[in-house]
Target: ABC transporter ATP-binding protein
Amino acid sequence: MSEALLSVRGLRSGYGAVEVLRGIDLDVAPGEIVALLGSNGAGKTTFNHTVSALVPARGGSIRFDGEDITGAHYRAVVGRGLLHVPEGRKVFPNLTVRENLELGSFARARARRADNLERVFSIFPRLRERSTQLAGTMSGGEQQMLAIGRGLMGEPRLLILDEPSLGLSPLLVEELFGLIGRLHAEGLAILLVEQNVAQSLEIAQRAYVLENGSVQFSGSSAELLATDRLRQAYLGV
Ligand code: ATP
Model:
């Protein structure tokens, strides 16, 4: 693997007295898609939130693009190009589609906001058609596209996608995976948490399996698929 874009070592995190992450090591190389798997409550969302500075790290280190960002403010992390598209969409329902997208233009990307908006509209023509519609009145799938579009407005170098296909129809899931493939082809690195494990492993070069706040497996997608126990646990075959 070339030098990591994201390099996490011994990461610990939790809430109050609850310890969730118990020392996680994880790397994402530039332009790589990495799948993060694990059963419910394993700590995937907590990992994503800790890496993107929404939850403070309690130990260990997070390096991004060669710089130590452990303990950095959320804005600083976003400003470096580490963007997190949260689970459950979380768009601003009372703002229009366009306003939601414009809010994704953080400091570094603000000067190129118009160009970025054009790019997002070309990726998601539906968002252009609905640019003046209130986000809260968009369908679930459209809100999910909007959340990803908002992430792209920040000119990410690493995009963390947390359950992007949740609640999407099979057709939209296909579209979403097509989009992820396209962003990858353009050189974007992606950390992907997905319930569609089979499709995730098809598109990801490597995978990590979290269990109970620890890494239980890390390796290529092919290695994971060749491990009977993991294939049974995550694909049921
Ligand atoms: P899922 O696949 O179900 O979304 P996950 O792997 O993303 O699960 P997390 O959401 O990271 O898991 O949760 C890990 C553990 O942390 C769970 O036991 C959960 O109850 C706990 N937890 C998550 N958020 C909080 C919080 N805000 N306060 C207290 N405990 C929390």
